[in-house]
Predict the structure.
Amino acid sequence: MKIDIKINGIEKVKKELEALSGPQFKSAVATTLNQIAGRYARGIRNEMSRVFDRPTPYILNSVKVEAATSSSLTVTISPSIKAPSGGKGGKISVDPQKILSAQALGGARRDKKTEVLLRQRGWLRAGYQTAIPETPYPGSDDGRGNLRGPFLRSVMSYLQMYYEQGHFQNMKKGAIARKEDRRAYSVIATRRSGRDINGVVFFIAGPQMTLQIEGGERAVMRATGGSRSRHLHPGIWAKTGGSRGAKLQPVLLFVRSGTYQPRLDMDKIARELDVQGLFAKWLRGNIRDQYRMISVKAGA
């Protein structure tokens, strides 16, 4: 977003302005621009807190200011001035500009990294994205409508969805292979000798699949209308308990992509802050400050 500012009321500091050199005047302008940027950035954060549902600190703190200088009288206020860098374990954060674009401009949300991986494996169909169940899986959510990073990485690693450095957990491939047939996801075998995550088996239910708990210790996921079967909404599910008393809980559901209505109005924030009026007022004050500085130096 670009804001054009006109300098009004400059005649009120005509005497001070005439005494300033070019660099001194530019310094006053740069200081004023940075003051305005700081106020505007706080306004954006406040508006995000108001219109968003439980925004994360990462999103709120992503509004950065690239300050103006005497040689560059331009100030930039935006989420993430620089591209996000790698974090612990080689994890790359999602660019907050991509997250906020749908909120400010409207339209579809960009895919999250988890959705990209699921789509690449053929489990998340076109036109679908992921959503947390209304009742989140115990210990999975961060209280803000998102899955906790460590929990999500563990589940995705279990499902062999992560192949990048830092995303592997402590589970060995052999143990995972004993759990599920990853080649087709048609059979999920749960043997006593197999390992799991704290007694929980995670699996993916496809768009047309049904999970049927059969005798013995195996769960077969296939299209069937048997009376003993349970039809599951597509997504990632958790299974606990034995074959005869298994408990199934959704972890991450596959739902149709939503379309966002614009909620973050940058122009509205600028109008409510009276950017034009503040700039004129603060610029006059900064010109007077520069004038006092040169007056003190002249008297010395």
About this structure: Residues 236 and 252 are 5 Å apart (CA to CA).
